Amino acid sequence: MSVDTSVRSVLRAPQVVRVLLGSQLGRLPTASGPLALLLFARQSLSLAAAGLLVAAYTAGMAVGTPLLARAVDRWRQPPVLWIAAVVSGLGFGAVALTGGHLAGAVVGAVVAGFGTPPLEACLRTLWPALLPPATVPTAYTLDIALQEMIFVVGPLVTLLAVTVGGPAAGLLAAAVVQLAGTAMYALSPAARAWRGVAAVRHWAGPLRVPRFTVMMLGVVGVGAAVGSIAVAVTGYAEAAGDRRLSGWLLAAQAVGALVGGLCWTRVRPGGPGRLPVLAAALTAGFLPLLLAPGPAPMAALLAVSGLALPPVLTAVFLTAERLAEAGTVAEAFAWVSTAFVVGSAAGSALAGLSAGVRYGLVVAPAAALLGTAALATVAAGHRAAGLTASRGA
Fold first, then answer.
1. Does the residue 393 lie in any domain?
2. Which residue in 16, 227, 223 sits closest to 127, CA to CA?
3. What's the CA gap between 81 and 320, in Å, rounded?
4. Exposed, middle or buried by CB within 10 Å (0-12, 13-18, 19+), for 381?
5. Nearest alpha carbon to residue 63 among 276, 367, 338
6. Are residues 68 and 159 in the same domain?
7. Which long-range contacts (CB under 8 A, 24 or more apart) does 300-303 make?
8. CA pair distance 38, 67, nearest whole angstrom
9. 257 and 352: one domain?
10. Buried-exposed string 275-293: b where 16+ CB fall within 10 A, e elsewhere
11. Residues near 347 by beta carbon (within 8 Å), at least 6 away in sequence
12. How many domains does the chain have?
């Protein structure tokens, strides 16, 4: 008897809608927070300070997410999430209260990033408890696809708050939304019932597994490709004479990713062997952007470039789940998120250093190609390990 693995069956399962919405709401500051920091710094400090605050927030998040997820693996989800949300909120509040003091604002931004609740990792550890095994890959893909809406809704929340209450209101809105989403998720019966697996843990966690570490390098490449597009598209919009185009163009890419993710839920996910194929498809999707056509064709090409992203990340999370040792699954998922964030920041920096729009657009396929090479190595290692196991049997 076949199991229904459709999106509808996932959403009908008890508690799924609640934890999914709570997680998405609590993760809005990953998109709204940097913009809120940017707008606040541009008024109270300077443009250079704005970049420094966003970098400090990103660095804090990159360091804090795996450590908080490790705490989740060892203990429980709700206490870690509550403490993290409060710490992050205090960080946003500290930035808002610093006025024109750069050092205090930087410290507040680091604290806000470091305390970011690891909701993404926590949610993905819940799926096996909430859904039949055959449906878990659909839940991964659905979550990744809906995550694209964070980068559409998050900035809108910040802009609304800043319009109503000024730059400091954007920071406070990020803290409140994050706390509300965390509460919605952490108070769910599924989150309160979840327990980590008792195991002997190595200090390196999932990074102790060589293939997992190589896969993280691949994720950095994918993240760099995605991060570079935001900067390159901004340059494209300025060259076209209308900065507002960048928002619409990036929204087109997000819509493409959403469509790609929803379509991928109808496909059998397969194993790690699909990693290089999907990453290669992502790389190919970035190449037509080098034509830099008019705004309407460019929007269509950006939508196409986003199609393969959710399938790639779904394959990565499924592989991470297989490679992670007992008691390190939440941390493994957190490392995937961290690698993507670090790659995105690096890609943004590289695209910003490029001279000209087309040179900026070259960063995406180049970074994605490097990521594909790393993921191909992981897939080859998986096949070799499977062959060795079969021979041993």
1. no
2. 16
3. 22
4. middle
5. 338
6. yes
7. 300/252, 302/229, 302/233, 302/249, 302/250, 302/252, 302/253, 302/256, 303/252, 303/253, 303/255, 303/256, 303/259
8. 26
9. yes
10. bbbbbbbbbbbbbbbeebe
11. 223, 224, 225, 226, 227, 228, 229, 231, 363, 364, 367
12. 2
The residue whose two tokens read 């109808």 is: 266
Query: φ, ψ for residue 116 (rounded to 5)?
Result: -55, 120
Are 140 and 228 within one domain? no
Q: What are phi and psi of 30, to 5 degrees?
A: -65, -25
**Tokens, residue 392:** 């041993």
Tokens of 369: 């190609």
Give per-residue burial for 34-71: e unless 16+ CB within 10 Å, then b. bbbbbbbbeebbeeebbbbbbbbbbbbbbebbbbbbbb
**Are residues 145 and 79 located together in one domain of the fold?**
yes
Q: Which amino acid is at 140?
A: Y
Look-up of token digits 């541009």: 42
Specify the 3-state DSSP secondary structure of 325. Answer: coil
Domain boundary among 196, 221, 252: 196
- pLDDT of the chain, 393 residues: tens digit per residue: 466 677 888 889 899 999 999 999 999 998 888 888 888 887 777 766 777 888 889 889 988 999 998 888 888 899 999 999 999 999 999 998 987 688 888 999 999 999 999 998 899 888 888 888 888 888 888 888 888 788 778 888 888 888 888 888 999 999 999 999 999 999 999 999 988 766 556 556 777 888 999 999 999 999 999 988 888 887 888 788 876 787 788 888 888 998 998 888 887 766 678 889 999 999 999 999 999 888 899 999 999 999 999 999 988 988 888 888 777 788 888 899 889 988 988 888 888 776 667 788 899 999 999 999 999 998 887 665 554 444 444
CB within 8 Å of 95: residues ≥ 6 apart: 37, 40, 53, 104, 105, 108, 109, 112, 171
Chosen domain end from 167, 196, 225: 196
C-alpha span between 387 and 127 (Å, rounded): 29
**388: buried, middle or exposed (CB in 10 Å: 19+, 13-18, 0-12)?**
exposed
